[in-house]
Design a protein that fits this description.
Strand 11 and strand 12 form a beta hairpin. It is globular, with a radius of gyration of 20 Å. The protein is of the alpha/beta class. It contains 11 helices and 12 strands. Helices cover about 40% and strands about 20% of the residues. The protein starts with 5 loop residues before the first strand and ends with a helix. Helix 1 packs across helix 2 and helix 7 crosses helix 8.
Length: about 325
């Protein structure tokens, strides 16, 4: 009954990085049979990935989604080459790589808008290639939100071992962070991470909230904004706790398993702890969008591209989350 499965679009990532070889490995994993798969990209990039991994795959190649029929098979390659057969150099960002990534992503997002795709899982992009290729957004999340016409709050989630994190501020200078720490701004990621974790199967997420200042006391933001946000979240029925001092928050919340997720005030307060505990297993979830979109927390790893030594676990974990979220959303 392939036609009754979740439809997941898989993107190859930057053609000069480890993405194509990782995707080739991913397709050998048994769990990928639980979904209808549409790999979107240039066929020669996928072929190069297969050469590196040493795998071959039985896929039906099409150049238009309308040619896809899941009744007989659940694996298609949607080729966007249009006669182009560009050779991409390994370990080198380029305008052409960025253009290829953006074209594949744009098509996947269009299919999602038309409800033809239930989730998107992509191998790592390279920000330099994206910029060279014409990307004008500060990060992929803003690009995706714009393409999907999402006006509500969005937030990048980072995940290791099903422990999730969200942040109030993201890619801004540290000197600007304090001015953004308001009760309203803190409540937005608390509400969103609760919603998304429930979509991923956690019935009553235990949400830790980080402090901003050392020991949660050398400043006024905790008393004026963070604690009132936590109390308001509790009134809304959300299982919140904190504020936890940043320097011990990951020990309490993640290592000691006191919480299922954590909301932090700024990028490095979360990312430093998360990457120290599990950079090699990390997943990124684009939260707040109309469709589940996941990828690895690591980048394109140019230094090992083409060597067939890249770790599959993060991409596999990101696929599992995309599948779980899409299935729960549909049911």
């Amino acid at each position: 009954m392939a036609q009754n499965k979740i439809n997941i679009a898989l993107l190859l990532g930057d053609p000069s990085g480890i993405g194509p070889e990782l995707l080739s490995k991913l397709l050998k994993e048994e769990i990928t049979n639980k979904a209808n798969l549409v790999i979107i990209g240039e066929k020669n990039i996928f072929d190069e990935g297969n050469k590196i991994s040493g795998y071959s795959h039985k896929l039906e190649t099409v150049d238009n989604f309308d040619q896809i029929n899941f009744k007989n098979t659940n694996r298609f390659f949607l080729d966007i080459s249009k006669g182009k057969n560009h050779h991409y150099k390994i370990a080198e960002p380029s305008k052409e790589s960025g253009e290829s990534i953006l074209e594949a992503l744009d098509l996947a997002l269009e299919l999602a808008k038309k409800n033809k795709i239930d989730a998107i899982n992509f191998a790592p992009f390279n920000k330099t290639s994206l910029k060279l290729g014409g990307n004008r957004y500060s990060d992929e999340l803003q690009l995706m939100a714009d393409k999907l016409e999402v006006k509500s709050f969005c937030c990048e989630f980072n995940v290791i071992d099903n422990f999730w994190t969200a942040r109030v501020t993201s890619h801004i200078p540290i000197k600007e962070v304090a001015s953004k720490i308001t009760k309203e701004n803190i409540l937005k990621p608390i509400k969103l991470i609760d919603e998304v974790m429930k979509l991923n199967g956690v019935k009553n997420p235990r949400i830790a909230v980080q402090a901003l200042n050392p020991h949660a006391e050398f400043g006024t933001e905790e008393k004026d904004e963070i604690i009132p946000a936590i109390e308001e979240a509790k009134k809304l029925g959300l299982n919140t706790d904190g504020p936890l001092p940043c320097d011990t928050s990951f020990i309490v919340a993640y290592k000691n398993k006191k919480h299922d997720c954590m909301v932090g005030m700024y990028h490095d307060a979360l990312q430093s702890g998360l990457k120290a505990f599990g950079f090699d297993r990390g997943v990124t979830v684009q939260g707040g969008l109309t469709v589940p979109i996941t990828t690895t927390a690591h980048g394109t790893a140019f230094e090992i591209a083409g060597k067939n030594i890249a770790n599959l676990e993060p991409l596999l974990n990101s696929f599992k989350i995309a599948l779980s979220m899409a299935e729960n959303k549909k049911n």
